[in-house]
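USER:
Try writing one entry.

ASSISTANT:
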Amino acid sequence: MKFNAPLSGVVVACHFVVTLVTATDASVTEGTPEVDIPLFGRVKGSVTISQWKKRTIYQFRGIPFARPPIGELRFKPPEAALPWNETLDATKFNRRCPTSSADSTDEPSDAFDTGPLEDCLHINVYTPQLGTNNASGFPVLFYIHGGSFRVGSARDFRPEFLVDRDVVLVVPQYRLGPLGFLSLQTEDIPGNVGLLDILLALHWVKDHIHLFGGDPSKVTILGQSAGGAAVTLLMVSPRVQEGLFTRVIAQSGTAFGTWVMDPDPYSDLKRGGRGTGGNHVVIQSEAVGEASMFLREDPGISLKEGRFVRVPLMGGITKHEGSFILGNIYDIILQTKKLTNDFDYLSHNLTRDTLDFGGIEDPTGLVVQTLTEKYFGHGELGNFSKMTPGLVDICGVSLLKASALRTVLENSRVQPSYLYSFNYDGQFTMFGYGEEVDYPFPGGVAHSDDLIYLFPHHDKNLSDAELAVANTMVDLWTNFAATGSPAPAAGVESWPPVSGERGPYLRIDRKSTVRENFLDEYVIAVTDGFQFSSSPASFRSFYTLFTIAISYVVHLLP
C-alpha cells in the first residue's frame, strides 16, 4: 500500500557553526550565514544538514530577484528588484505566487505571510559553501517547479538530498495562471511573463551565484512536468543568450507536449471566466513588443530547424505517467457525465475523448483505431477496469512519453543526450498530490514519483532500499550537472547516451539497467504485470505502426 506524500518538505534539525569567514562579502556567525549582494543588499540565512554526509547547508530563502509584479507591473515583464537598506531576513520562505488552488493560502510556519499577495518573485538558494572557498565554484542546479503553469511553489523543494553533493541548488518562483500566462497579444498583456520571470531569475544567478559558492559558467536548468516544459522552452527562446546555462534536465515534460501551447489565446480568454484560461504558453506576435517577446514560433519548428541552445540534455519519464492524466479524465468526464458503466461510450468514444483531452487532433480516426485495436484485447472494450492498463499507457504516451523521446532524439544529433524511465515502485506516491482520491485504479509509479527521491518531503521516512534509490538518483543528477555525463554513479556503472531511434536508455529501479528499446515503456502498463489477451510479441510487432500513427498526430517524425 502506498501513502500520499504532499509536496511540502521539512527542514532537518542542524548543528550550528561558530564564526567562519569565507570571503569578504560572506560570513557565518553563530549559525547565521550572511551574504552581501552588490546593488541589492545584505541577506541573512540559516543552516540545515544534508542527508548522507551530514554536511552543513547554508540556505537563503525568499530573496527578491524582481520588483513586486503589482499595479502597472501586473501582466508585464518583470523588472529587477530594488535595493534594500536593512539586512534582509532570508531565514523563512516568502509567499507563494497566487494560484487557483484552494491551498494557495496555506502558509507553513516557516513562511512569511506579510506584504502584497502578488509579491512572490523570490529565489531560494542552498549551498554547501559560501563565497570563493572553491576557486571555480560548485555546479549550479536551477530547478523550475511544475504544476501545469497553474500551481506550485519553490518552497516544496528542499536541499537535503541534492546538496549532499558539491552543487548549489537554486529554486525560483514565477507567476502562475492568468497572472503569468494570460495573453491578449498586446504590450499591456503580452503573455508568457511567467517564463520571463524565470529568465530574469537565471540572469540573477549568472550575476550573483558566485557569492553563494556557485559557478555561473556551469548552470544546469532542470524541471519536472511544466518545469520540464519550461527548461526546454528556454532552449528555443530567442531571448536566451549563449552561456546562460550549460546543461538541461527535463523530467516528465517538454515544450513539445500537446498540452503546453495555446494556439488560440483569445478563445482561452473567453474560457477564463470558467477557470480554464491563461494557463498555457503562447506564440507571440510582433504586437507585444521586443521587451515582452519570449517565443516567436512553435517550439517544434525551432527544434526541427535547429534553432535552439545546443547543450547536453538528460530527459525522461515515470513508468505510469498516464495514471495522473487518467485520474483527471475520470473526474472531469467519466464521473461528471456518469459514464463509468456506459458500455457504448467506453467502447466507442472514450479513446477519442482521451486524445481530445490532451489536445491531440485525429481527423482521420487512424490513431483512435490503432490504439483501440492494439491496447485493448478481446472482451476488454466497454469494461473500464479492464481498459485501465491500456488507458494508462495511451495517456502516458500521447501526452508525455512520446514528446520526451522526441526531445532527446533531436538533441542527440548535436549534443550528448541521455534518456531514462523511472520505474521504482516505493511505498510513497505523489498520485493525488496529497489529496484523498477515490479512483477504481492505482497510480502505479505515477507522475512526479521521481521527485520523492530528489527532494525530501515531510510525513515520509524512506526505507533503506528507498534511500539507496535516492542516493543513486542524486549521484546521476549531480554528476550530469558537474560533467555532462550522469554515470558512473551508485548502482549504475554506465549509462551511454542515445545513439539510435529507440535508445539506449536507463531504466531506474531498485536495480537500474541499461536497455535498448524505449518503446517498451509505451506499453508497460499492459505488458508488465497486467493481464492482456495479446502476447508481448504481438505488441512488439505493432511498434512501427503505432509510432507512425502517434507521430502523425503529435509531430514526432523529423
Summary: The two ends are 42 Å apart (CA to CA). The first strand starts at residue 3 and ends at 4. DSSP finds 13 helices and 18 strands in the chain.
